[in-house]
Amino acid sequence: MSEHQLNASARKDEGKGASRRLRHAGQVPAIVYGGTAAPESIQVEHNHLWHISQNEWFYASILTLNVDGKGQRVLLRDMQRHPFKQQIMHLDFQRINENEAIRFNVPLHFLNQEKSPAGKTAGVIVTHELNEITIVCLPRNLPEFIEVDLSALTAGDIVHMSALKLPEGVTLPALKLGKEHDLAVVIAKHARGQEEDTAAPEAGAEVPSTKAAKAAAAPAAAPAKKK
Question: Model pTM?
Fold first, then answer.
């Protein structure tokens, strides 16, 4: 697990007006909570934050948050963005206990799909049903992502959550809820047109003419009324 750091400073002013002033000054209001310490209001420099927020690890890693030079280990729990501007509005960080398991969503990385039999077969569509997955582990075992090797994927295959190779110390809480929670992660299937082609009539079977087929499908004419 890589170490990533983010610098911040404490703030005393709170409320909507104070938050607006911070944003105009190029700062992002944030809060740190959890653990035995009281919640703490902080601010983070926006441009640097925006730059690191483009990295996947920012959302799925334990961060060392340095508040006025004092480090604490945290997870990003929420980030609010402006509806149309490239602007981060607010952050929530949660302190972690190194000896307490955490529940977290991590991204899935799909490998070798193009090299797989399904990836090389014309007319086969490979869909990623999930792009992230919820795991439980101790902070020291938290992976930045989980790899899904698709090198052996063939047409008709379904890769379920239970087939994923998890790092040591990592579990999937959904699997403890029953088989119906073992969701599909990847599905390889023929395109609809391909399926219709494989359902063509057998050799030697009679195929009705277009006129005959239409006649068979048309409703029977009502009998003429007697005068």
Answer: 0.75
